[in-house]
Structures
1.
Amino acid sequence: MGMEIIYRILCLVLGYAFGLFQTAYIIGKIHHIDIREYGSGNSGATNALRVLGKKAGAMVFVGDCMKCVIACLIVRLIFNHVAPDMTLLLVIYTALGVVLGHVFPFYMGFKGGKGISAIAGAVISLLDLRIIIAGLVVFVIVVAISRYVSLGSIILMIQMWTMYMIFVLNDPETIYHLGQAYVVESIIVLGCLAALAIYKHKANIVRLIHGEESKLGQKKEEKVVDIHEN
């Protein structure tokens, strides 16, 4: 049991280290700006899209998504041989670490992004095509209809966690190769990951309720007065 706790901690630390790679901040610096001082004040793909354009937005999304995929792949390659029945749980811990590093980077005063692109990498890392495809379809439909990326992101979090919970409780071994002893814990940790992302959207939720949220395609280049509110 002692080694299993160490495995969890190592995966969280590894994930956090990968999460510190702030793609939006780096690309912003290449353009001679601090992305956190423009638009929503968020160091993420949506704000990069609004402030720096489609190419930058796409680069940020891919970069933040892949840092989670790569971290989770490393964990799979290591623990598939060391602890095969808990590998998926460790992958989820790694993904949580990546999101924590992305959202709370210590070298940026713990002010990073909201973690959605990184969580997209976490969804891919579950290696369940049902969740990946359903998540992509629902996100695209919600954003296409509403033009609210934040709404699509929130619904994606809820859908991802709900589908995983249903599937893993029904059959943890066939697709996930997860030992029964780790099923509930994996649901809780993945739920924490989703809850963190939704919590980081609290200001967006308030603006959605009041009809003040910025829609996709709306530029928001003004300097942020209080980035703590975004």
2.
Amino acid sequence: MIASRYLDRVTEILGEIRALELPRLEELAGQIADAVSSGGLFYVYDNGHMLNTELFNRAGGLALLAPIELGRPRLGTAAVRPGGEPAAVPVSVDDDLTLARMAVRRAGVKAGDVVLLGSVSGRSPLVVELAEESARRGALTVGLTALRYSTTLPASHPSGRRLYEAVAVVLDTHTGIGDAEVAVDGLAERVLPSSGISAALVAWCLIAALIEALLERGVEPTVFRSINYPDGPERHAAALERYRRLGY
């Protein structure tokens, strides 16, 4: 069964993450905990498919995560004129670089903060510029990327760097080259990507290590409870108020 082969491959990737990423996660979590304890912010932006929604406002998740907002339209929502002509002008590399610098400035990133940036391929000019601009402002930069894949691809950023080359700390999702993991007889292309699953797992393991590191420092982070309980909206509002008051 194709599904069984996919599960076997995902299980293999999860084993690699356990063996190779957990030590890095624990060290990084200590750095983030020190930053948060000192009034710094922990920013997250994902150029991939999941983390911009996966980590935020989730039951069991932390209130202290800060998004970097780009204001881009979602995939498939660009306006089209009658006849099928796109209304939007194609975005250039220079546009992406300007957008990234503006987004970092608008988010208020500064020295003492931590910025986690996700990109499967790591070659997007925008995400590399987000890393470079955050570093210029003194933040600790972290890249969540697929090293096996990214190292086979050419850079698109003018610096000639991919995400893993532009950040201070690299976390590897262990996604295969091309992301699609299973070859199927009768299909020209491999199927079934793993990057969403592996990126979410690495990110949640980092959150787990961060919770542990904060508690070791005597800091109790604000945790969201499911909003679906009868008193869920009130608890969510109270959690946000606690976060705004304490900063964690």
